[in-house]
Amino acid sequence: MLEEVVEKIQLSKKYKYISEKTILELVKIELPKHKSEKNLIKAVKNRLHQVYGAFLSRKDTEKISKLLSTLESGGEDIRDIAKEILRLHQSTRERLDIYEELYREIFDVTGKPSSMMDLACGLNPFSIPYMNIDRHVDYYAYDIDSTVIENVNRFLGILGYPRLASVKDVLFERIEEYSDLCLLFKFLPTAERIRKGSSSRLLKSINSRFIVVSFPLKSISGKEKGMLENYSRIFEPVMEESCKIKKKFVLGNEIFYILTGGNDG
Ligand SMILES: C[S@@+](CC[C@H](N)C(=O)[O-])C[C@H]1O[C@@H](n2cnc3c(N)ncnc32)[C@H](O)[C@@H]1O
User: Fold this and answer.
1) CATH number, span 2-53
2) Does domain 58-261 have CATH number 3.30.200.20?
3) Which of 15, 56, 118, 218 has the highest CB neighbour number within 10 Å of its CB?
4) pLDDT of residue 54
């Protein structure tokens, strides 16, 4: 029964490339609340829309793939192409003017890492050229969208890094790796919407010397609605359950927290 429902959802063009594990777990969460299969499928699709809906269209994904082919055939500047890709999603587009300063601020506290994790990464790994790190980094990038992961691995290959991106649901699958620095940008509010208590569990499960967490200060519609106060009030105690806040700062439309501790090592 569960598998059948998952298969029906996977038939939808929009969710064809989303991790099967994610769909299955959402079906399990919604199952007890619905009597008919039709309503169950509708509820799971609503949930998927919450976690994934405002992300990339297939057209954008094809564009990324073409831009990467240009890079692979040589000639183009890696930063110029990365910038075009980062422009395709609101979260990364908003950071275009701040990426360099952001990574400088972070590395001032953490030092330049040899290994990184980027959880629910979206297009953020395409900002690696803005980090100004002049050696190879083990960059573990996880997302539930297999097309994003495929393109991130191509990009890591172009940079000469190991291709360490993989499809992983960071709420429902174990994160095995250790890193010097873990990025968790704009994800905890979504995690909490999926299941209460997820953000605390996720933070406790991360094996990293430093974790940088961010929250948006504007909603997608551009309104400010006291998000700074709300997110600080709700999430600072959650972060402090397992980590120490080393530094917090506002840059662009986001608030960033640099954390230590957690499940370090
Ligand atoms: C708002 S975007 C944030 C992307 C990136 N962290 C950034 O700030 O630039 C949300 C991303 O989270 C991914 N995502 C949603 N739920 C996830 C989960 N449970 N595990 C891993 N990735 C997830 C989506 O596919 C999407 O790429």
Assistant:
1) 1.10.8.10
2) no
3) 118
4) 63
